[in-house]
Amino acid sequence: MEPLLRALWGTALEQDLSELPGLDNLAQPTGVLAEAQAVVAATVGSDRAWFLVNGATGGLLAALLATVGPGDRVLVGRNVHRSVIAGLVLAGAKPVYLGVGVDPQWGLPWPVTRDVVAAGLAAYPDTKAVVLVSPTYEGLCSPLLEIAQCVHNHGVPLIVDEAHGSHFAYHPAFPVTALAAGADVVVQSWHKTLGTLTQTAVLHLKGERVSAERLSQALNLVQTSSPNYWLLAALEGAGVQMAQQGEQIYGRLLQWVKTFEWPLPRWQPPGIPQDPLRLTLGTWPIGLTGFALDELLQPQIIAEFPSGRSLTFCLGLGTTQTMLETLADRLKSVYTEYCHNAPLPPLAIPSIPSCQEPALSPREAYFCPQRSIPLRAALNEISAETIAPYPPGIPTVIAGERFTESVIATLQTLQELGAEMVGASDPTLQTLRICKV
């Protein structure tokens, strides 16, 4: 065996076990895994919880496969992660995208509102499910209490991608959880904000609008039949840690955060619940993009997400008071050096229309004959690919949508700023892949 791998892993490789007697079976748990999942469900307030070993992606795929089928109408927040689009390809459902506003100063998206959801349900009464992301990457939350009531009055389930809000259940200072707000199916990416390993997540069910049996069937379609038990043990351990120490850990961290002042403006839209551990700072006042400031801070400090006019930091379990002091000092140093620069001009990113039906469903676009053409010739053509600046993976164009002038301009602008275009067959964007219809 490679000596470096042995040095890094030690005896861990010897404990890389599979479905042995006493270890239970994730595909049909009846023993220790079933008990661990039940503890997690009881702690956060769901009726049932499933451990996921291929990230929140697997949970979102299963949620769609369990609630909608070929030709069914589904309302989807336009700021969803690209894994939801993959779920639409698998399920064959026809989406209507719910638009989001964009803060004109920050160039960042707001969460989906109750009025937009209500308008979508009124315009499309045949809707079978609603899928939203809350919180957003910057920690902004939709008014889920009002949205859940609206969706349930229509008689359909609400699915919430709560990937970045797994910690909300463990301290009263955090926004209300999606489950407490009334969501039926909730997917949490535990590895993003809790103390567990990468690609671990949890799927929650509450109520009877969605069948638990159907969710289990769907998970067995999209999850590996050979889950890594280190991942499962990490999930169990994180659940125990949060149940026993979560409020204490987060209470201490929240107190530390309150003691620091940041030299750059912090994005806190009034009237919108926000995760206090997401720190989004505006970089435009000192003439820097978020990408440029991110490079200046590295390698000592690595931010969560740079954008054209801001930089987002994710504070979590591993954050110490010393780390926060280091961040504050480094930001003050950069501010002192660049504060005499002219501010950046506004970055015009248009808001997304409230309700928009694509030319083709993602499944139709996926199986449609395709070809590549120069970017300049793509205007009004139907995209065959979902292109998402990464992180966080929110698509600028979704397969099945037309390339408009604003979409092409946004792609070019974000590429010039340094974003990585995930999903593009040509990462340079010299060509775009379109549907031949």
TrEMBL record:
In terms of Pfam families, this protein maps to:
OKR_DC_1, OKR_DC_1_C
Which residues belong to any copy of the Orn/Lys/Arg decarboxylases family 1 pyridoxal-P attachment site domain?
A: 187-201
MF GO annotations: carboxy-lyase activity
Q: Does the keyword Lyase apply?
A: yes
Signal peptide span: none
Record-linked PANTHER family = ARGININE DECARBOXYLASE
What's this protein's family per the entry?
Belongs to the Orn/Lys/Arg decarboxylase class-I family.
- What is the designated name of this protein? Lysine decarboxylase
Q: Which organism is it from?
A: Thermosynechococcus vestitus (strain NIES-2133 / IAM M-273 / BP-1)
